[in-house]
Amino acid sequence: MTHNILNFEEINQEFINWFCSNGGTISSKIAFKDYSSENAGRGVVAIDNIQPFEVLFNIPHSIVLSEKTSSLKDLIAISEFERLREINSWFPLILCMMYESQKENSLWRPYFNILPREFDTPMFWNEGDLAELEGTGVIDKIGKADAEKQFNEHLLPIIQSNSSIFDLKMHNLELFHCMGSLVMANAFQDKIPKKKIKENEDKEDEEDEEDEKDDVTMMPMADMLNHKTGFNNARLYCDKGLLEMIAIKEIKKDEQIYNTYGELCSADLLRKYGFVDEDNVHDIVELNGQFVVDTISIDEDTKDRKIEMLLEDDLLDDIFVLDTTYEISPELIITAKIMRMDKVQFNKLQKSKKFPDPKMNLDIKQPLIQLFEKRLAMYKTSIKVRK
Ligand SMILES: C[S@@+](CC[C@H](N)C(=O)[O-])C[C@H]1O[C@@H](n2cnc3c(N)ncnc32)[C@H](O)[C@@H]1O
């Protein structure tokens, strides 16, 4: 990601002045830090020891950027926003950001100045670099062509028919990709939990959520925090309408302050945020269901009937997942056992409707090893090469 690194400190100060003059507060124990040497852009660091539950900053609702706060809402019919939302829940916010980012006297000018303008996500990679992702399944999920089609069909007509608000020279596809990438990497979409952590810090599922908050929004300052799997030490909470970033554990001086972007596998981290974590307990390998049955099946005559039966009983998934517990799911074991049956065995099963038990046995061990080796061979590079 690229920022206007030349005047890093000035941009920070301008942003902090703006944030505080609009009612935000920032603890004197934190500061911005340039993590570009780690390829992580700007982040937030503790400049003093911080105790659990300390408030790191709070964000006034008036500077949360959304279709409800952007001045575009006064210039465009609400029905346009509703129509856009039906196509894609991010589009109203993306359009507002396209507008506010180019507006001379936008309330959010210092905020846009601190946000990156170039991104490391695969959306912006060239073909040679994308080829490195072969086998990961990321390439199919980038969706660049689809996003461009949707821009042309749904956003461009609004831009073109409102020439007093928009200028096609700046409100173009490039700006759409830039704002879309910011929404993907920075926006908050999930409901913000209510602060109950002091009494019940471990009981996440008992936390209420702030009811009114499920729009897609940009939260200045909250999105300055980086993520590192397993190192989350701060979280955003909502307490009586107040948005507060709170330390969820002790943070020592000089440690980076990390929010969590979720329990994401490497493919999702890369696709949405443009980075991966070396050690990621949430990492997975996806095995396409069709690939599994095609590889394991031993009898063409009964193959389709077997697939039909597995689908009916929700045993055959579109995607089987292998995770870092290295356990093979009961569904995959049963699918493998059925696909390895000969005609006689399968006919018997169809009559009895008695499915094989989901335990590993010698009949399927070797076919599964071969399946995993075939899946592994789909990756163009190996971990050894990467390191
Ligand atoms: C919500 S923003 C965080 C602030 C951002 N670093 C900045 O400079 O504006 C999310 C982006 O930060 C970067 N980022 C976050 N955590 C990272 C990490 N552990 N390693 C590399 N980049 C990271 C990625 O570019 C990601 O898309």
UniProtKB/TrEMBL annotation:
Residues 202-214 have a biased composition (Acidic residues). GO terms for biological process: methylation. The keyword Cell inner membrane does not apply. Pfam families: SET. One of its GO terms (cellular component) is nucleus. Keywords: Methyltransferase, S-adenosyl-L-methionine, Transferase. Residues 195-215 are annotated as: Disordered. InterPro entries: Rubisco_LSMT_subst-bd_sf, SET_dom, SET_dom_sf, SETD3_SETD6_MTase, SETD6_SET. One of its GO terms (molecular function) is protein-lysine N-methyltransferase activity. Residues 28-262 form the SET domain. This is SET domain-containing protein.
